Amino acid sequence: MRPGFMLSMILVLCSTCGLAAGTPSQHPRVMVLSINGAEWDIIKPLLLRGEMPNLARVIEHGVYGKLRTTSAPVCPKVYSAIFTSTPTAENGITGFKIGGKVVRSEMLKGLPFWKLLSDRGVTVGMANVPATFPVTAVKGYMISGMLTQGGNCDGVLCAPKLSEVRNGDAVYPQSMIPELEAKVGDFHIDCSAMPTAADLRGKEKDVIDQWLAQVSQIRAEQTKLFDYLLSNHPTDFTMFTQSCEDRVGHWLYPIQPYNVGYESKLHEVKVDAFPDQYRQFDKILGMVLSHLDDQTTLFILSDHGIKPLRDNDLDLHHDHGGDTPVIAHHNFEDGDDVPGMFVAMGPHIRKGEHLMGFGVSVLDIAPTILKIYGIDAPRAMRGRVLSEIFN
Ligand SMILES: [Zn+2]
Fold first, then answer.
1. In the prediction, which pLDDT does 7 show?
2. Measured in whole angstroms, how far is the alpha carbon of residue 124 from the centre of its chain?
3. DSSP letter assigned to residue 314
4. Helix, strand, coil fractions of the chain, as percent rounded to 5
5. How many DSSP H helices and E strands does the chain contain?
6. Which helix (H) or strand (E) holds 69?
7. I need a labelling partner for 206 at 20 to 30 A (CA). Which of 98, 197, 284, 294 fits?
8. Is the pTM of this model over 0.85?
9. How many beta carbons lie within 10 A of that of residue 53, not counting itself?
10. How far away, in angstroms, is 387 Cα from ligand 1 center?
11. How far does residue 10's CA lie from ligand 1's centre (Å)?
12. Is the pLDDT of residue 257 over 90?
């Protein structure tokens, strides 16, 4: 018996596996790699300099452009619009907290698109996607992301490890937890909290170095997790989110001395810290690409961009937990000031096309993915199928 066939049989027989690795599927394959806050202003120079070769390759073989986001885009709000293809007023997720309570997946009104996929027999694998805690049952697996609650973390901009999760499940099915602990280790589910002004005072360089070292560690854990899942639990539909880019941009955006809030002790220490996040992201993209065949459709998305503070944003300078010296943000009332990123490549996607303007919205993601699986979007969904990206 061929070893690959034997492995398939073992996995088919494993009732707790969630899905059977190696089992051929009749469904199309779609991979969504989402970045919490990808800023074209930083990424485009890196592309020109040849410092994001994997993203450059995807753009060359696919379509790319801005992604119109919500007004005052914050992550849970935008991801909820992506999940349900409904505006905030309809899906109910207005921010990190509602009525003083940290947002949980149960608060989402409307059906997320992966539930529709799963109900139609499409296997679904998701990891570190914001606003999915506590995780819900799918035909496959789900590992939560931002807003996961832990012992010392209420879920807002902090980073519980898998072993520290409280008040709900971070992994579905639960039987996957010992496997992940053994094969991946006790990984952080989200990115680190930013230091406060008091933490930084007088020891800026040391705190910045230590914090960036932790970000690198979390990214290494996420990379290992994603690589493990793609190798051992392939699914028809897969969605992973990278979370540290946004966090770094908030307080280490490479700003100029004329920008509001400039402090030389902070902003001259590691001017490359934020671009470095995208250089590192490109390596993760390379790993993900190594797992995809030419029949898989890949979407690279971000929920919003991020820009330096402007005139009337001064009150946000110490936002994010109250006393964090934030220098850039994405909570602009006009979401068109901080568009996200949209990139797609696949067997039926047009090649080498730049999508101009704001034609693509976060509301269009769910109907477009459903369409690839031959599923019509329910009437409640407000977005449209992005027919212009297909051949
Ligand atoms: Zn975000």
1. 41
2. 16
3. G
4. 40, 15, 45
5. 13, 13
6. none
7. 284
8. yes
9. 14
10. 26
11. 40
12. yes
Of 191, 127, 196, residue with least CA distance to 161: 191
Q: Quote the ligand 1 centre to 212 CA distance (angstroms).
A: 19
- Beta bridge mates, 345: 298
**Cβ contacts of residue 6 below 8 Å, gap of 6+?**
none
The region of weakest confidence among 155-164, 214-223, 341-350, 365-374 is 155-164
- Scored b (16 or more CB within 10 A) or e, 217-249 reads ebbebbbebbbbbbeebbbbbbbbbbbbbbbbb
3-state secondary structure of 192: coil
Alpha carbons 267 and 273: distance in angstroms, whole number: 10
> How do 296-302 and 340-345 pair as beta strands?
antiparallel
Query: Which pLDDT score, from 0 to 100, does residue 14 have?
Result: 39
Which of 183, 187, 241 shows the shortest CA–CA distance to 214?
187
Instruction: Kindly give the distance from the C-alpha atom of residue 87 to the centroid of ligand 1, in angstroms, as a whole number.
Output: 16
Q: How remote is the CA of residue 137 from the centroid of ligand 1, in Å? A: 24
DSSP secondary-structure letter at 173? S
Give the position of tokens 């400039």: 262
> What tokens appear for 62 in the block?
């696919």
